[in-house]
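User: Quick sanity check before I run a bigger batch. Here is a single chain. Can you write out its predicted 3D structure?
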Amino acid sequence: MVSRVSIPPLEDVKKIRRQLGLTQAQVAKLAGVSQSLIAKIENGRTEPSYLHVKRIFEALDRETRKVRPELTLGEVCSRRLVTATRTEKISDAVGLMRRHQISQLPIFEGEVQVGSLTERTISHELAIERPPEALARLRVSDILAEPFPQLDERTPLHAAAALLQTESAVLVTKNGRPLGIITKADLLKAVTRPGL
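Assistant: Done. Predicted structure follows.
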């Protein structure tokens, strides 16, 4: 049984093919289908099988990446890595987040990420009826959450985008050392980059 993933609308075949400057015959060869199938799809005269459509879009995607390689995390991440330590007071860590207008902090010991502090963690503590003044006096270690996932700077952007569906941030590394951080806000900036 074939696992079905979301694919673009069939009308996109012609549009993408033309953007890439490919003929119907070239797309057919790349996808391992007949040229007449490509023509029928573009003219709306057939209901092709899921497998054929998947192969066509995979071929178009491969060609698109040759022309316009996918951005890497190193190209998109914020190099301004604001961090805190486990021994800092929550009030100081939150002050840091407010000053830098960020919603999360990786927590480090030296160059090793040992946890994280996020708006979500703080709001959870307040939701369980911990008074704000009591929370402010705690140390970061008292409410430390799991460390953010880490990916190398050469990792394609889509890998971080998938993680950011459930994570607040992804730490970006270079040769195993912290380089920067990527959040959903960085994904939005990537979409508006000049030249895209």
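The first strand starts at residue 104 and ends at 109.

User: Great, the batch can go ahead then.
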